[in-house]
Amino acid sequence: SAELCLLPARAALLPPLAGPGGTGPAEVGLGALPAELRAAVRALVGDLDALFTAMDMREESFAVGAFSRIVAAELASYAPARNRRRTATTKASVVFVDRTLDLAGAVGHHGDNLAEKILSVLPKLPGHKIDVMVNMVELTALQTTDEICSIIAPGCLAQPNDPAAKTLWESFMNLKQKEAVMEARRHLVEAASRENLPIKMSMGEVTPEQLSSYLKLFRNNLKALENHCGLLQLVLATVQTLKHPQTSKWDNFLAFERLLLQTISKSEMPSVLKQLLPMINERTKDDYTCEDFLVLLVYMYSVVGEIESGKELDAAEEEVKKALVKAICDEPEPSPLLQKIT
Predict the structure, then answer these.
(1) What is the pLDDT of residue 148?
(2) Given this model, what pLDDT does residue 80 score?
(3) What is the mean pLDDT of the chain?
(4) Mean per-residue pLDDT for 72-94?
(5) Alpha-carbon distance 221 to 229, whole Å?
(6) How many angstroms separate the CA atoms of 272 and 292, rounded?
(7) Which pLDDT band, with edges at 50, 70 and 90, does 257 fall under?
(8) 89-114: average pLDDT
(9) pLDDT digits (tens, 9 = 90+) for 3-25
């Protein structure tokens, strides 16, 4: 969008963790890091410099955390970056933050945003790290139950040539989910009216079924499909996200996290862990996965910070560990992540 550019995550680049009694990266420079990590930092600096060159940008760097200071220092002393800063015409501030200082930010389910949900639940577009695949079968006369029908090319979110779609995407990012879904309906109704399609505008809450019924009006009208293809892809992405089982799970996560923020204090940790136990022990195949529990645990411990261990906490943690081990062992087909962990 005009205000936001999403870049692929550097998943492999994490600050080294301090071992028990060992030093963290606070006192070290780039030279003290393992060779692989040094190479990754240099690659990141090179990529950032290429990006800033393309944007004709002169950056002022700020760092939060020891590892970020290393990256910022490396960028500051990188020869091509020094030359660029002499000639660049636009200015920007760049803030580097150690991911280990903000794990809650990476695993939390933030608020009520449709764009974030679409990007999180729909499958990735092949060859892309950010954009997603939108199943287009609903706009064809093809009747299939195949979830990923491979004979119809998937749609996506990037619609630079469709002004209505660009405007709608902005509202997906900037409005609350309920308002964004109403915007999707409004754009769809306007497009249908322009094409003289027999649309009946209804008031009240927008449901995915209602949006689907509007989309079907475009189905056999090739001219209307061509004129509004970008918009239709975004509305289909909305319908598929709202119907996705992951979306209701997202809302459960969000409720749990909000409750946690209200109740959590260092003394409450054992009772919060006990609340998690039945969720692990009594889950069915449609409930949370083992990865979901790991994400919740990362969130809980990040929010609560350092905790003094005591008998009650140790006992609660032991029970959760046992339940998690059993859950992982009971997985009929462990995911690649679980295989990596075990």
Answers:
(1) 62
(2) 94
(3) 86
(4) 94
(5) 12
(6) 16
(7) confident
(8) 86
(9) 778 888 877 788 887 665 544 54
Using H for helix, E for strand and C for coil, what is the string for the chain?
CCCCCCCCCCCCCCCCCCCCCCCCHHHCCHHHCCHHHHHHHHHHHHHHHHHHHHCCEEEEEEEECHHHHHHHHHHHHCHHHHHHHHHCCEEEEEEEECHHHCHHHHHCCCCCCHHHHHHHHCCECCCCCCCECECCHHHCCCCCCCCCCCCCCCECCCCCCCHHHHHHHHHHHHCCHHHHHHHHHHHHHHHHHHCCCCCCCCCCCCCHHHHHHHHHCCCCCHHHHHHCHHHHHHHHHHHHHHHCHHHHHHHHHHHHHHHHHHHCCHHHHHHHHHHHHHHHHCCCCCCCCHHHHHHHHHHHHHHHCCCCCCHHHHHHHHHHHHHHHHHHHHCCCCCHHHHHHC
Residue 269: per-residue pLDDT: 82
Residue matched to tokens 């509004």: 228
User: Residue 47 in contact with residue 75, Cβ under 8 Å?
Assistant: no
What is the arithmetic mean of pLDDT over 202-229? 88
